[in-house]
Amino acid sequence: MSDPIDKTKEKIEAISLEVVTIDGVDISAMGKILNLLCDMDDDAEKIGRPVFSDLISGLKTFLEKAIMGETDDFEPFEQGIEHLGSIHRCIRNDKEYKDDISEILNALGLKKSDSGQNEKNSQQDQPEIECDTKDKNVSAEESAAEPENKKEVKEDIKPPDQDMDEEDREILSGFVMESLESLEAVEVSMMDLEQDPGDIETINSIFRAFHTIKGVSAFLDLDRINKLAHHSENLLDKARSGEIGIDATVIDICLESVDLLKKLIEGVQQGMENGVALDIGLDITSLVDRIDEIQVEGDQVGDKPVGEILVQKGEITSEELAKGLERQKEEPDKKIGQILVEEKSVEAKSVVGALRDQKKTGKRHIDLQVKVDTKKLDNLVDLTGELVIAQSMLRQNQLVLSIRDQKLMHNLGQLNQITSGLQATAMSMRMVPIKSTFQKMVRLVRDLAKNSGKQVQLKMFGEDTEIDRNVVDELYEPMVHMIRNSVDHGIGTPEERRKAGKRESGEVHLRAYHQGGNIVVEISDDGRGLNKERIIEKAKAKDLITDESKISESEIYNLIFHPGFSTAKQVTDVSGRGVGMDVVKKAIEKLRGKVEINSGTGSGSTFIIKLPLTLAIIEGMLVRVGKEKYVIPALSILESVRPTKEQYSTVEGKGEMILTRGKLIPLIRLNRIFDAKCDHDNPWEALVMVVEHDGSRIGLLLDELLGKEEVVIKSLGETLKDIQGIAGGAIMGDGRVGLILDMAGIWDLVMGV
Length: 753
Fold this sequence. Notes:
This protein is 53% helix and 16% strand. The protein contains 29 helices and 18 strands. The strands form four sheets. The protein has a six-stranded mixed sheet with strand order 10-14-15-13-12-11. A five-stranded mixed sheet has the order 2-4-5-7-6, covered by helices on one side. Helix 3 packs parallel to helix 5 (102-108), helix 4 packs across helix 5 (102-108) and helix 18 runs antiparallel to helix 20. The two termini are 12 Å apart.
């Protein structure tokens, strides 16, 4: 497989993941996609398939129009991405792509007959949009984000400081990181506030986040961020003082402020990275005006002092309050609550209750924390891994083993304990609760339910379960797509649920827990469930299966992970175009995990994601084929057997097979895949390890099982990183390198995908 084909595969997967998680007119995401498409141009020329190059040109033309605001219908683009993946698969398998894409090219704005000329004309007619903005003053995102009054907004955009020193960059980087973290916390607090609008402590925490962003942005001369944060802070200040009440309108506008602030702050980050303006020029005027309108309405409502609260609660009458206020004029040192108690108009406990309603107080325990650069943390983990390897090599050194000194053995034992403890501590420092990722889904479900007119509740379990920080970052986008599918396809409308005998409000459950050294994340809903008959019908139409009686239920459900597979009868803004589930599966497999599906018609669906706790260490079985050692991930292993001669057979068109547990499974010889010599050619003289992938099983022919081990996974470097079937390497105790097998890659190799 040539290098350009590998490169384009990675870029297509990255584009697909951006497409399935893009939300509305996301200029930042569109800019990333455009850069990826531009990067693919050179590789497309090397590949030499005109249909591939034409489609890339069409996608670029369409995206440029979308960035300039000339179209907001992304259906042609998503169909184009689906065709791009199909064409790429044909190129990998050295086949011709037979489908006519002229209609797609036309929908994208590029005619196949004159694609090259059309592209040139497009570039002449459209304002210049560069894919790589490192040497330009204005990025694609900035150009697209300019409103009609360009001239007025453009004056506010400050050019990049080409002489920005390292200290300034460090300050800006810290501002971006902390502000984005604060805004994520605000989103979660907004959900809490919607459940309890009178929680003063929650309002105060949201206020403090906006206040901090306002103060630091003013210092850094980021005018738009400062202005929007300032107006949002004023709104929250009136809410905490009781001048305005917290309702759905206030919460919605605060969430809009969070979204816009995120885009502005991410623009600062992009500006630093690309050497362009830090202000991407988004229009904040309309949102600021709406915030001001709410504040004016709040000023008209006025305060809600203790006396009014008592009247509202029915504790006193308006006449008693008026009488108390008259007396307060004569005795201004006394508070109204004290006067009302003295007048015996109300009991003291009622006044105390009103005061609590007016302002809730509470102390929070704050753990002292030290911020550490993630690069330093990763370096510590790497060094600890090297220490573990060195310690293991020392213990297995033949010279050391020959020494019969008890004190030396005792010291080596102590060293082993200290090294293991240090490794466990270093790894735990990279572990973070999955709570932050789960909580982001609360906002997602709320918005999806609101836009679709459905009633959906998200319930979370095990959100304190810890997982490697690098894993949790990569898990976010696959989870977003599966949650969207649950709400869009799984949960029905209130009317549909009522007819099915269910409650009008649907539920989506997020659950995380540890199981056998792995983390398991379950996403389930109580909706319609997967329609097995429709999946089979669609699979037959795509020539994926011929006889459903020969495949298991899990294999039927796994068909939805096939590229371009969708059973949706109606395409929505959220899903249904067949772009996404295959990308989700690849993203999970990239993390050395797997996805399982449990579903029943009318009873909902459950997607079970199994992942390693960390990407730095892999638990697996160390095996030997000839002189070579391999590590097979424990997550894929079902059993190991020594077959008899009767269990071995060959099947025409399928090759060598092994009969195990009443089923024939393909026999795969690792020595042939990796061109290694083996000790035994006859399977009944060797061992067979049965492994599973996507509900299917194969048997790997081995010479010896060496035992279960936890090994530190190492990259094989730029030259060898793209070898199919290999996930990485590990240094063994004898100092030699053992290759870690990638089951998804092995599957693709042996099945001819």
